[in-house]
Structures are given as structure tokens and as C-alpha cells.
Amino acid sequence: MQEKMQMQYMVVGFSHKNVDISLRESLSIPEEQIVPFLQEVNACDVICESVLLCTCNRIELYLSVYDTKVAKKHIYECFSKKSGIAIQTLEQVALVRLNEYAVYHIFGVASSLDSLVIGETQITGQLKSAYKLAFEHSLCGKDMTRLMHFAFKCAASVRKQTEISAHSVSVASTAVSMAAQKLAANNQSLESLPVLVIGSGEMGRLVCKHLLNLKAHITLLSRTYANAQNLALELGGDKIVVRPYEDLRVLLDEFSLLFSATSAQGYVITQDMPNTLASKRYWFDLALPRDIESGDMQSVSYHNIEVFCVDDLQEVVQEHKQAREESAKAGKKIIEAFTCNFFTWLQTLSVEPVIKHMRALAKESAHKELERAIKKGFLPAEYRHNVEKILHGAFNTFLHQPTMRLRQASESHQGDPIIEAMKSMFDIDDEIVMLNSYKCERDTTF
């Protein structure tokens, strides 16, 4: 039964658009656990391939499946088992997209049009890493490779043909911009300001770069001291002081501005750690799960401390969004075109087995009749080679027009019935998703 079903693309996701940060924290999967999680996802018979994209703003599965209903049920069970969140809750908040809408969504993610910060620079690299991890562990193959190839081409076209990335932005740069705004409101500046940065990963590196551009003085901490040292050297040492991670508790009271972006699975800063000070402090938590415990922000220990997580960057995000509105509109049109082209290309692939099979049948029939004619004495055996050439030319001439028409049909939305009829007549089965009159309508969720 399964082999008669068509492969379908599917997205099951939890992002900043539909799930708050506390729920995303519970759903977040550490990098070292992604492969086992995907192996559990792929254990379902109807799921063929999967890729997991896990960032501070989204936890999304990209899949090729044979039965969407069974696949969704299994995926919710996997997430529920991993996170402890009830399946009913997951069903209520999950974003689910199928086929053309799934592809449009993935192309939008790759092109940063679905990001919290539209035009951010990190997401394409994060998606490439997610695909690479799944591919290297044989968790995805042909289906996702085809899709990701188009996704990255689409992202490159959006960057090249629009102004959406004219000024490099990211969650890190947005957080630094927001910090600058908060300081300016109190007549302060980042220039020469001592700033504490916790974490030496990609997000920490970006935070440091943007702070250095504004001439801040950075004290850097990392659970791996050597990583902090290497980052300081990479970014030009003299403006970055590396301190041992064990100094964190003491350092919390020495800085008015703090950025934390570690990959820790528990809190790095707990409510009992800071002392009450008269001066105002701004802490930016860019990690998922969050680094800073924020259960009771009215507690005495958090007096005069404002804590911001990635979901709190909206005031700066809105400025970016308005500035990039025209580029975003142009980008969406590019994504629509790439989505149409992707399915047209897939359908073109689906017609080749039909053409190949037709030609094979014609050749087999011609050779069969030739052998019968020689066996019955209708034709001398020494004429075999010349007659083969004549027959080959005859069936090539006969099949030329039908072959051209089939290829033309494969590039149009009206070609589905023709191709499906030919596949049925010649008993050809494949796993290609047909267009089904897909019109590439824009998904208004972007």
C-alpha cells in the first residue's frame, strides 16, 4: 500500500510567531541530541527523511512523508516524549505546512523573511548546518537534498536581487542596538563602556563584533577558557579581556550591561546571584534555553535590573521591519517564483521514466518482431543489422512528437492528467509530488 502513495513535503514547527519562549525552551533540543531525536522521528514507517532546524527563534522539522496524518501523530509523540509537553498542547500551537506551502515556508526561512529580524544573516548558515548534520547521519537524502538545493539558491537570489541584507543584521546586532537605545535614554553610550559577555559560540562572537564596532570594552567569559581566548584573539585582543568562568558571580555586580549566549541546558545566572545595587543594569539573554532565571523579576535581587530575551527585541525589530518592507515584498515574489520552479522541476523529473519506458517498449517490440521475421524466414539473417537501423529510426520518428508533448505537459499545471494517464497505461510508479493545479499563492503568514 505505502509504495502506491505519493511522497509529500511537510513542515511541523514551533517558532517565535506561534509559540512563546518558555514553550520553545522546553521543545529546544541540544545539538548532541538532535541525531538521536531525528532517528526516533525517522523510525516511523511513513516518514522518509527529516531535518531539524533548532535556533533561538524556532524548532522546526522539515520532512518528506507518505502519510501526513500518521506522520504528524508520530512527530507530536516524539516532541511530547522529549519535552514533557502534552500532545494536545503541541497540536494547538504547532505550525503545519504541506507540499507547496511547506516548500514556500522553508524557502522563506532560508531567505530570512520568516525571521524575527527580517534580513538577519545567521539563518541560512544555520539551515545549512542542520541539513549537513542530517545528511551525514543518513537521516535525509534525495528529497531533502533537492529541496535544500533550491532553498539555498532562493536565499542567494533574495539577497542579490533585494536590499534586504544591505545592512547586516542579526539577533545579536538587534540586541546591541536595543542596548544602545536603553543607554541613550539615560544619557549613556556604548563607547568605552565596560560590557560583560558570557558565551564564546557564534552568538557570543557576533555580540562581541557589534560591541567592538561601537568601541565598547568587553570582558568575556566562557565555560571553556580556551574558546574565550581564541575568540578574543580572532576579534583583535586588546579590547577584550578574558576572565575565568568561575568569576561570574563577582562580575555580575561590576557591569551595567551584560549579554549572555551560552549553550547551557540550565540557568547560568540564577536569582540568588546578583546583589542589589542602586545603579541601573541591562541584561540581554540571547540563549535558548534561556541563561538567566526570570521566574520572579520583582524579586529583591533583580532590583534595578531589566532582563530582555530574544522575544523582547520587538521595538528594534519593528524599525528593521519597516525599513525593509519593500525588500521583503520583492523577496516574497522571488520565493513564490522559486516555489513554482521547484515543483515544475520535480514534475519534469517525473515524466522522464514515462518517456524512457515508452522507448524501451518500442525497442523491445521492434526487436521481437525482427527476430520473429528472421526465424520464420521472412528476412535473411544477414539483413539484421540494417533492418535494426531502419526500425530504430522508425520508432524514434514515431515517438518524437509524443515525447515532445509529454515534456511540454510536464512544465504546465494542466499536464497532470496527461502524465498520470500515461503512467497508468504503461504501469509506471514513482514518488514525485505532482502539481495538482498549484498556483503558488502567497502564504500570508510571512
UniProtKB/TrEMBL annotation:
<keyword id="KW-0560">Oxidoreductase</keyword>
<keyword id="KW-0521">NADP</keyword>
<dbReference type="Pfam" id="PF05201">
    <property type="entry name" value="GlutR_N"/>
</dbReference>
<feature type="binding site">
    <location>
        <position position="126"/>
    </location>
    <ligand>
        <name>substrate</name>
    </ligand>
</feature>
<dbReference type="InterPro" id="IPR036453">
    <property type="entry name" value="GluRdtase_dimer_dom_sf"/>
</dbReference>
<dbReference type="InterPro" id="IPR015896">
    <property type="entry name" value="4pyrrol_synth_GluRdtase_dimer"/>
</dbReference>
<comment type="subunit">
    <text>Homodimer.</text>
</comment>
<feature type="domain" description="Glutamyl-tRNA reductase N-terminal">
    <location>
        <begin position="12"/>
        <end position="162"/>
    </location>
</feature>
<protein>
    <recommendedName>
        <fullName>Glutamyl-tRNA reductase</fullName>
        <ecNumber>1.2.1.70</ecNumber>
    </recommendedName>
</protein>
<feature type="binding site">
    <location>
        <position position="115"/>
    </location>
    <ligand>
        <name>substrate</name>
    </ligand>
</feature>
<feature type="domain" description="Tetrapyrrole biosynthesis glutamyl-tRNA reductase dimerisation">
    <location>
        <begin position="332"/>
        <end position="428"/>
    </location>
</feature>
<feature type="binding site">
    <location>
        <begin position="199"/>
        <end position="204"/>
    </location>
    <ligand>
        <name>NADP(+)</name>
    </ligand>
</feature>
<feature type="domain" description="Quinate/shikimate 5-dehydrogenase/glutamyl-tRNA reductase">
    <location>
        <begin position="187"/>
        <end position="316"/>
    </location>
</feature>
<feature type="binding site">
    <location>
        <begin position="120"/>
        <end position="122"/>
    </location>
    <ligand>
        <name>substrate</name>
    </ligand>
</feature>
<feature type="binding site">
    <location>
        <begin position="55"/>
        <end position="58"/>
    </location>
    <ligand>
        <name>substrate</name>
    </ligand>
</feature>
<dbReference type="GO" id="GO:0050661">
    <property type="term" value="F:NADP binding"/>
</dbReference>
<keyword id="KW-0627">Porphyrin biosynthesis</keyword>
<feature type="site" description="Important for activity">
    <location>
        <position position="105"/>
    </location>
</feature>
<dbReference type="InterPro" id="IPR036291">
    <property type="entry name" value="NAD(P)-bd_dom_sf"/>
</dbReference>
<comment type="similarity">
    <text>Belongs to the glutamyl-tRNA reductase family.</text>
</comment>
<dbReference type="GO" id="GO:0008883">
    <property type="term" value="F:glutamyl-tRNA reductase activity"/>
</dbReference>
<dbReference type="InterPro" id="IPR036343">
    <property type="entry name" value="GluRdtase_N_sf"/>
</dbReference>
<dbReference type="Pfam" id="PF01488">
    <property type="entry name" value="Shikimate_DH"/>
</dbReference>
<comment type="pathway">
    <text>Porphyrin-containing compound metabolism; protoporphyrin-IX biosynthesis; 5-aminolevulinate from L-glutamyl-tRNA(Glu): step 1/2.</text>
</comment>
<dbReference type="GO" id="GO:0006782">
    <property type="term" value="P:protoporphyrinogen IX biosynthetic process"/>
</dbReference>
<dbReference type="InterPro" id="IPR000343">
    <property type="entry name" value="4pyrrol_synth_GluRdtase"/>
</dbReference>
<dbReference type="InterPro" id="IPR015895">
    <property type="entry name" value="4pyrrol_synth_GluRdtase_N"/>
</dbReference>
<dbReference type="InterPro" id="IPR018214">
    <property type="entry name" value="GluRdtase_CS"/>
</dbReference>
<comment type="function">
    <text>Catalyzes the NADPH-dependent reduction of glutamyl-tRNA(Glu) to glutamate 1-semialdehyde (GSA).</text>
</comment>
<feature type="active site" description="Nucleophile">
    <location>
        <position position="56"/>
    </location>
</feature>
<dbReference type="InterPro" id="IPR006151">
    <property type="entry name" value="Shikm_DH/Glu-tRNA_Rdtase"/>
</dbReference>
<dbReference type="Pfam" id="PF00745">
    <property type="entry name" value="GlutR_dimer"/>
</dbReference>
